[in-house]
Amino acid sequence: MENGKIKVKGQHFVLVHGLCHGAWCWYKVATALRSAGHRVTALDMAACGASAVRVEEVRSFEEYSRPLLDALAAVPPGEKVVLVGHSYGGHCLALAMETHPEKVAVAVFVAASMPVAGRPMSLFMKQHLKENSGADYFVDCKFGMVERGSEKLAETFLLGPEWMSQRMYQLSPPEDFTLAKMLVRPAQMFLEDEAMTGESVLTEGRYGAVSHVYIVAEEDKTLLAEDQRRVAASGGAGVEVRTIEGADHMPMFSKPAELAELILEVAAKYT
Length: 271
Description:
single chain; alpha/beta; six-stranded parallel beta sheet; 11 helices; 34% helix
C-alpha cells in the first residue's frame, strides 16, 4: 500500500452486470481500475446492454451467460482473471466458475446471489421472490411473456422507474439513475431452466474450489444487508465478507471509489 492506495500488479478484471442492466453500469468502476493500471472487460450478457440479441432469442441461461463463458474460454492457459458479479450476475459467475475454475483467481459477489454447490442455482432467488410476493412489492416493474419460436412462452421482467428509485438507486447520483432509466432492458430470470434447477450443476470440486468474496451493500433496499449476509454465510466459513457503508443496491454508482478500492484489495490478497 502506498499513500493509502492498494498497489497490485496488473490484473484482468471481468465485470458482470445484474438483471436488466448491461456493461454500461460499470463505467465508473472500470475507469478506476483501468486508471490503476489494470485490464478491464465489462460484458453485456445476451440481450442486455448493447447486445444485438433480442430477449426472445435467448433460449437458456447458458446462452444468456455465453458472453462470459466465451470470455473465460479465451483467457490464455496459465492466466487467471478476477471475476466481479453484481446482483443476478452472481448466477453467471457461478456457471463460469464451474466451467473454467482454472481461469478464475477469485470471484467477487457484489450484493449478489451466490449459489451453493450441490443445490439449484435458482433456490435463493425463488425463496426471495416467494418472501416478497405482495401485490405492491414490485411497484411499477413489468412482467411479460415472449414467444421463443416453437418453444413455450418465456416470462420476462423489466425494472420500473419507481422501483429503481425507491429500492435500487435511492443513494445514487441522479444522473446515473437517469442513465439507467434510459438503458435498462427486459430480461428473463430463467428460474426453471435446467442449468438453474439442477442440483449437480455446481460442484465443490470446481465451483467450490474457487475463492469467494462477498461484498455487502449496507443500505441496499433490493436485497437487504441481513439477507446478503445470509447468502454469504450459506457458502460456508471460506467465504470472506466485506462491507460498503452508505451503498444502495448499485454501489458502482453510489460508492464507486469504495467499491473499486475493495476490488483491488481482494485482487491483492488472492492473486
